[in-house]
Design a protein that fits this description.
- By secondary structure, this protein is an alpha+beta fold.
- The chain folds into two domains: 149 residues, Gnk2 domain, C-X8-C-X2-C motif (Killer Toxin P4, Chain A, 2-Layer Sandwich), CATH 3.30.430.20; 45 residues, no CATH class.
- The protein contains six helices and five strands, in the order ααβααββαββα.
- A five-stranded antiparallel beta sheet has the order 1-4-5-3-2.
- The N terminus is likely disordered.
């Protein structure tokens, strides 16, 4: 399901380091449907990129990203394509509970969706319910970046009642506390947890 870019509004800003976990854990908790989120940054003028070497390198890096040579075996993919100022870097990351085939399917579909949504982007990213795909004109390894960030929101109201809101926040914080412990106890490579908490409104 795609959502109009104008409908994606900033609700919270989170660092790149924690971006993957918040949309994949919090959004289902607060009762939203999964929404694909695009970030198209540093766009070329329409006439510049269409036949450019950079665009060919974007296509090349996204096409080759999911080869076994570019994977750590746990749903993380990294690749680079091209040279000098036309070099393109890409990363793909799948949710921790996805099997290899589902991960590859998600990243392949995301490749086409990302190119359609950001046809002139020097840098772009796409979040889906199952994976994240990003490319850039600079290396993303070993750096914490605040942009691009992804945000989401629920159009459902918890309650205008202060007592119900307090209970909701208490259950949410308790759930996140449990999930934080599970993630921290994960192995060296895959850190993933999922859970839910129910309450009557």
């Amino acid at each position: 399901m795609h959502m109009d870019r104008a409908q994606i509004k900033a609700g919270i800003m989170v660092s790149t380091r924690f971006q993957l976990f918040l949309p994949l854990i919090l959004l289902p908790v607060i009762g939203t449907q999964a929404v694909d989120m695009f970030n198209c940054l540093d766009a070329f003028p329409n006439t510049t990129i269409l036949n450019s070497t950079y665009l060919k390198n974007v296509n090349g890096v996204l096409s080759s990203l999911i080869s076994s040579n570019n994977s750590n075996g746990y749903g993380f993919y990294s690749s680079a394509y091209g040279e000098n100022s036309d070099k393109v870097y890409a990363i793909g990351l799948c949710r921790g509970d996805l099997k290899h085939d589902a991960c590859v399917t998600c990243l392949n579909a995301s490749r086409y969706d990302l190119m359609e949504a950001c046809p002139n982007g020097r840098e772009a990213s796409l979040w889906t319910e199952k994976c994240k795909l990003r490319y850039s004109n600079h290396s993303m390894h070993g750096t914490v970046e605040l942009i691009p960030s992804s945000t989401g929101y629920s159009n459902k109201n918890v309650s205008s009642s202060l007592s119900v809101l307090e209970v909701f926040n208490q259950r949410l914080m308790a759930l996140l506390g449990v999930l934080k412990v599970e993630v921290a106890a994960g192995g060296d490579v895959v850190k993933f947890a999922v859970g839910n908490a129910n309450m009557k409104l």
